[in-house]
Amino acid sequence: MPLNPPLPPWPDCRVWIIGASTGIGAATARRLLAEGARVAISARQAERLAEVAGGHANALIEPLDFTAGAQVTAAWQRIRAAWGGSDLVLIVAGTHAEIRAWELTEQNAMALLETNLHAVIKTTAVVLPALLAQGRGAIGIVSSVAGYRGLPKALIYGASKAALINFAETLYLDLHGKGLGVYLINPGFVKTPLTDKNEFRMPHLITAEEAATAILAGLAAGEFEIDFPKAFTRQLKLLRVLPYRWYFALIRKATGL
Ligand SMILES: NC(=O)c1ccc[n+]([C@@H]2O[C@H](COP(=O)([O-])OP(=O)(O)OC[C@H]3O[C@@H](n4cnc5c(N)ncnc54)[C@H](OP(=O)(O)O)[C@@H]3O)[C@@H](O)[C@H]2O)c1
Fold first, then answer.
1. Contacts of 109 (CB under 8 A, 6+ apart)
2. What pLDDT shows up at residue 199?
3. Which atom of ligand 1 is the closest one to the Cα of 208?
4. CA 52 / ligand 1 centre spacing (Å)
5. pLDDT > 70: what percent of the chain?
6. Ligand 1: centre distance to CA 177 (Å)
7. Does ligand 1 come within 6 angstroms of the Cβ of 142?
């Protein structure tokens, strides 16, 4: 039994993707357009959005900075006016910066939290009233397996993603009874501009296209948590239940940090 109400078949589905100029969001937008969905794509880099749209008749380009609530509100109004409603809002946008405990400053922490947490919550607050008024539709939030438990170098990134996992769980509890779907998307390592900066070996690294395939499959199946690749996320889910003494020792051994 799926945890979420079914989405319309892709050719009838109207999807807004925030964070669609590169990486996972861009690949997901391309796949949805190829499946016949109507897709509105947002991010700050308008030229890259135009490349993703590729002149497709079903693509709407809405450049914005999603940390600016007024821009999100205006885009949401235009998208709903163009489509007469919306079936799915996918908040993919996010950023990453390695921060270790001794590098922590108010400035580097707040900069990361503004994008990875505050903007996601503010965007949810913008879109929810219309979804509730429709009485159907769904919201999907991209968090990360880095939100499962603490990891070295992910001092604030991990905290932002852990908060998003909790946020999505609570959204689900509140919204399921109102007929709305909530999707929590937890990728492992995906090759994108974000991870191209990483200098360490990334286990089970997949392409953005493989990530998009997993996301579309999870959405179509009505799953609450869409985590991938399974070979990696299964291991991490096991680590999640280990006592701290074992967890800390294993992570130190695996990362050398
Ligand atoms: N790659 C991985 O291994 C991995 C693993 C787990 C989770 N994730 C998560 O997956 C999501 C996508 O990451 P990615 O790997 O695909 O990275 P990416 O290629 O860097 O994509 C990030 C997207 O977010 C957009 N974005 C960032 N700040 C924004 C802002 N202020 N306003 C609007 N859009 C903004 C970027 O567009 P503009 O720069 O054009 O604004 C871009 O489209 C992130 O939330 C990330 O944390 C990634």
1. 99, 155, 156
2. 87
3. 16
4. 14
5. 100
6. 30
7. yes
Question: Is 232 near ligand 1, meaning CB less than 6 Å away?
Answer: no
Mean pLDDT, residues 4-29 taken together: 98
Secondary structure (3-state) at 254: helix
pTM for the whole thing? Answer: 0.98
Burial 6-43 (b: 16+ CB within 10 A, else e): ebeebeebbbbbbbbbbbbbbbbbbbbbeeebbbbbbb
The arithmetic mean of pLDDT across residues 228-254, rounded, is 97
The 3-state secondary structure of 57-111 reads CCEEECCCCCCCHHHHHHHHHHHHHHHCCCCEEEECCCCCCCECHHHCCHHHHHH
pLDDT in tens, 134-144: 999 999 999 99
Closest CA to 184 of 204, 194, 170: 170
Give, as one character, the DSSP assignment of residue 7: P
Ligand 1 within 6 A of CB of 236? no
